Amino acid sequence: MAPTKVRRLQDFPRGFPKLACFLDSDDAFMVYRRFGTVYSRLLLHEQDEMRRLEATLNSMDKTDEYHGNTQYLMSPELDAKRQDFPDEWPGHSRPQVLEQLKRTALNYADLVLKTQQLKAMGQPSNRDYRSVLHFMENDGGQTYDEEMSFIYEKEDLITLRPGREYAWLDSIVERMLRVLRCRFTVLLFSSKETKSKTDDSSIHYYDRGRISVLVTFLITILILVLLIIPIWLLYKCSIINTIATSPDTMGIISVSTLIFSAMLSAFTKAKRHEILAASAGYCAVLVVFLGNVNSYGTSN
What is the mean pLDDT of residues 59-70? Predict the structure, then answer.
């Protein structure tokens, strides 16, 4: 089987070729400008053009109504074959104005959707931004000042990095791997392909799949902890004959539910009503467990 081809930074000449390779080498580095002001300007231009054409069309309709030419308003076919135009018209037929309005409306709608998609893209994290900035200024991705000025438009930058529900936890794991970098961590979290991407000791690549496995494992551990510890504490309270409505048991349930809600907010993209429903279900589980334990203790 032929070996896997890997684009290595050192194989590209300095400037845009090397910068392009670097930006494509990892999801975290895919940082580009959104050009929000330009898109807003284009939207305003198309919007004003539609307003002008709409006003022209309404004026033409009212002129026909005023002169009693309502048959042209009732039949597009007659209107298309029309030869005589009122003097008040701007030198174009109504079908021509409608055709211009159609093209402008389609351009406007497409521009609105494209602008919305760009606006919905997230901004790069400070860590990702600093990584790209450092490379462009120091590590061979340099271009002329005018060409590299986009990286300083921080408020106008977007990242093409695929969104994950707990991306910030991925970032924490990557930061810890950088701090604790050694032969063991490199062996565990770097594949053969990621190791060969660069020979620069200041640039570190990790396998996204392996980091995702570790993050999933951590999330699973947290979920188990949130279930086991409150249940164990409630069971201990039942052993020492603490009633279900005591401040201790109510505090355990309240704090556990609060932590559970905070974790949902931090690790997922759940909406407010979804967080409320999940928290209510979690609280209900603890209350039911507490009720069963107290009932069992009373019967004995």
Answer: 85
